[in-house]
Amino acid sequence: MDKIVAAKVFIDVAHTSSFSVTADRLTMSRAMVTRSIAVMEEWFDARLFHRTTRKVALTNVGVECLEDLKRWVDDTEKMIDQFKPNADLKGTVCIATSMSFGHSQLMVAVSEFMSLNTKVKINVELLDSPQDLINNRIDLAIRITKSPPPYLLGKPIAKCRSILVASPHYLNKNQPINSPEDLLHHQCLGHKNLETNAWSLYKDNLKKVIDVNCRLVTNEATSLMQACIHGTGVSFLPIYLIQPSIDNGQLVQVLPDWALKDMDIFVLYPSRKHLSPIVRAIIDFLSDYFKRHEIN
Fold first, then answer.
1. What pLDDT, on the 0 to 100 scale, is given for residue 271?
2. Pairing of strands 188-191, 214-218
């Protein structure tokens, strides 16, 4: 049996925790899924899953080898694609990203890619919450996160730096903000997807965690920016989104000596799925594009 196929089955079962579900998703028999896992366990000479009548779960060995197998499959398929005959890219790709990143960054990059590949069609889904890429037929997603989900392959393409901001009007009518503790006396604006109102701020070797009072919470960064511009309160927002508003004076940085932790911007894609040349080309293009157009 092809070990690449077996590895893909292993990765998918690690995600679904079910041989039957993986069989349905990969359009193969349950017996073939079972055989694929047996091949992997023979290869590693170790049990990779705990099996019960209700579900399966990774063993410690399975957990340890999962990420390495994802990289191995990805690198192998990339090498194979490099030796295939060159042809014009054509087809349709669906990309999911947040409204803020799509509006301020992705559309410019996509436009450049499409000008170079005139037979490519791209659908962009603006979604501010994580989605099941496979069931929603999304080829790749761009997400800002500390680490990608274990059932997806992720390639970091840029850094996301955020800062605390407020409007001049808000700052003029409220008491000064000279230290992180001063935020406790201010109206703060929170992001729902963070699931916490504890803001961590860093200065040299110091770290301060402030439990802020968020009267307004939204799941979308562009809305937070507009609320800040209209004097609703203080929030932390990605520089890639708010730099124009800082340049024109609509927003002012708060506590400039204190930093928020940077996060990675990942391209995420389903690990079970063989990447088509067009999807791989977009991933490589975005990686190169954001090296050439560094996000501040």
1. 62
2. parallel
The tens digit of pLDDT for each residue in 75-98 reads: 887 776 665 555 578 888 999 999
DSSP string, 111-140: HHHHHH-TTEEEEEEE-SS---TTTTT-SE
> pLDDT tens for residues 235-275?
999 999 999 999 999 999 999 999 998 989 999 887 655 67
The answer to whether residues 66 and 150 touch, using CB atoms and an 8 Å cutoff, is yes
Return the bridge partners of 143, or none: 266
- Enter the pTM of the model: 0.66
Q: How far apart are CA 110 and CA 114, in angstroms?
A: 6
By three-state DSSP, how is residue 261 classified? coil
Residue 173: C-alpha distances to residues 168, 176, 200, 247, 266 (Å): 9, 9, 25, 22, 39
